[in-house]
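User:
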Amino acid sequence: MGTLGAGVGALMGRTGSVHALGDGELNNALKKTGKRVILLWLAGGASQLETWDPKPGRPTGGPFGTIPTTIPGVRISELMPEMAKRMNDITVIRSLNTVDAGHGTAARLMVQGRKDEAAIDYPDLGSVMAREMGRIDSKVPDYVSFYSDTEGRGNVMNGPGFLGARYAPMHLTDKMVPADLSRLSSINEDDHYARAHLQEALSAIFSKGRGLDTVKSHAEAYARVHGLMSSQDLFDVSKEPDSIRKMYGPTLFGEQAILARRMAEAGVPFVRVARAWWDSHGQNFETHQEMVPEFDRVMSALLDDLKQRGMFENTLVIAMGEFGRTPTINGSLGRDHFARAWSVAMFGCGLKRGLVYGATDKDGQHVSEKEKGAGELFATVLSALGIDPEKEYHVGQRPVPLVNPGIKPIEEALA
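Assistant: Predicted structure:
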């Protein structure tokens, strides 16, 4: 169990104790709603011009055409025919200006809604969801992150910050099944439970009189490993019917999206599925011609699957990376990092359907209508899930709201 235990409990905040105002009845009510988040992380930065905000016929437009969607007057890239048929179910924000165009710092910004401070590590969205929606008696993990490619993996190895190891992600990189999840054949079931009880007793003796949140957090994380071992089938994509696997497609991205849906269905509050590597400084159009159709198929399959299972209203799906790509096409026929005017797409829980919010200018160089930042997007996601963005945790004596003061959700995007 050592590898899994380390994976669950490795990340610790730098600051002291944490508690939340507004816990108790409200928090328990949220936990019972069954709301979940699936983040499709487009690692490296997908191009908005080859997906949600094309500029056909302009010098920045590139070679691909556009197609009509189920929202009258709205067109998206011809590389996305399946999502074009489903645009009346989704929300697209076309007016993000997130300023930061560095892979690592921008990735943290997008999943935290703000930058870290020198004295405090903020939790990312997955850890906030684990804190707000996870249940202590659950046998499934609270936060799972799939990232099989090596490019850009380090950019998203963040997690609970000051919330502590109890809310850290389970990182699955080499395999889709956690390491050391199975009980060794040399250990029978009685011995397995006896060892668990011994560890629990020793942990209780060690923590007695210490009162440290870090000790408690690690003990809780270790205890959950034992429960996880009983949910091994959750990570087995072969349990899905062939018809479902065919719908998502034969790729690793598709299979991990199926597992994300399985986990959401089983009660996992937050799952991230990363698809790398979109960092197309050269041969941008060849890259997107290969990757966008796969993304289109997986995202549309996930939408249909959630609908068919009655999960659409309680599951929030977000498709984004750390930034977009430059409208300017460089000498290598690539697009570079671009955070000044780009797009994010979402659907499901708490969101208005069939909305395209904001706009960029005719060449996609600047936001021309309704500019928003990472903080507003983060606040919108929290609000859609029924979590007050102004809710405060306390780190020691310091009150820490979930978003920076003055940041408001995008009300027009909320149902």
